[in-house]
């Protein structure tokens, strides 16, 4: 028997989210946030959003306090009569945990000091652990993201930062508006990072980021390969890379190989970094294949998205195939199609 998942997109279409997270309490394991959602209510008595383990501190619809209950399957059911355009404003808090999904801490040591940075992993259905939303791939919307952090850290999100201002010991970073996109691709990283940078021939800024525990030379191969891959796909798909920048971040704690967040791809360190002092050809080939796979997703998966998770195989298998196409074009001497025959059958 199959379980029918209630699709929340059927009763509410989000158009835009303005979301702010305050990470200044992260060391004490509490994050507070606010989200302002504009969208279209289709059901005439309630609006249902996804919200998982978020403590709601205030909730208004069109400026008026609204009552709400929690339902099954992470549902936040808001009472509101009528259909048409609505504005929902929610203040919330969440507990930071080591689960490696939603918002989570990454641990590393540098110069004998224990440090943390904060990152996100929202695929497949963990955006709801970071803010109330319609957490379904079909429910695309634009996002305005801002973050309050301690000063002196790097703060990244899907889009370039448009402003950074200090507020006492804190830093407020505001990012440019995203294109219409799925909630699972929204992302941020905040912490001590260094980078190496370059630009594609079409003017896309490419950055490879790692913690200070990693040597700068370990970032060089990834940068060269990422730039060449974007240039290759620009031509191959005959569609320019859809964002102004492409950030690639090596995270000390990460549950999968990498995640194709639009414009802010996150990796486990072994999938992005190649220290020339210790690296092998095999590890370079692995890093190249992961970068190409995630970059191909910036077009299909991110620009074009499956309606529901039952078609994820299409997204992933095509990305895997395209990583071989790109790597073979960039490094013909590797004979990657021989690898394909043994690895992918």
Overview of the molecule:
There is one protein chain. This protein is an alpha+beta fold. 18% of the residues lie in helices and 39% in strands. It is built from four helices and 20 strands. The chain has helices at 220-236, 281-297, 312-330, 336-343; strands at residues 12-22, 30-41, 46-50, 54-61, 64-65, 68-71, 75-79, 84-95, 102-110, 113-121, 142-150, 154-157, 161-167, 170-175, 188-191, 194-199, 205-210, 245-251, 258-259, 264-268. α2 crosses α3 (312-330). The longest helix has 19 residues, at 312-330. The model has no long low-confidence stretch (mean pLDDT 96).
Topology at a glance:
Blueprint: E1 12-22, E2 30-41, E3 46-50, E4 54-61, E5 64-65, E6 68-71, E7 75-79, E8 84-95, E9 102-110, E10 113-121, E11 142-150, E12 154-157, E13 161-167, E14 170-175, E15 188-191, E16 194-199, E17 205-210, H1 220-236, E18 245-251, E19 258-259, E20 264-268, H2 281-297, H3 312-330, H4 336-343
Parallel strand pairs: 1-11, 17-18, 18-20
Antiparallel strand pairs: 1-2, 2-8, 3-7, 4-5, 4-8, 6-7, 9-10, 10-15, 11-14, 12-15, 13-14, 16-17, 19-20
Helix pairs in contact: 1-2, 1-3, 2-3
Q: From the helix content, strand content and strand pairing, which structural class follows?
A: alpha+beta
User: What about the largest sheet?
Assistant: 8 strands, mixed
% residues in beta strands = 35-45%
Query: What's the helix-strand series?
Result: EEEEEEEEEEEEEEEEEHEEEHHH
**What is the molecular shape?**
globular
* Poorly predicted residue ranges: none
The spatial strand order of the largest sheet comes to 5-4-8-2-1-11-14-13
Q: Kindly state the mean pLDDT as a whole number? A: 96
Multimeric status of the protein: single chain
Number of helices: 4
Percent of residues in helices comes to 10-25%
Distance between the termini: 30 Å
The total count of strands amounts to 20
Radius of gyration: 21 Å
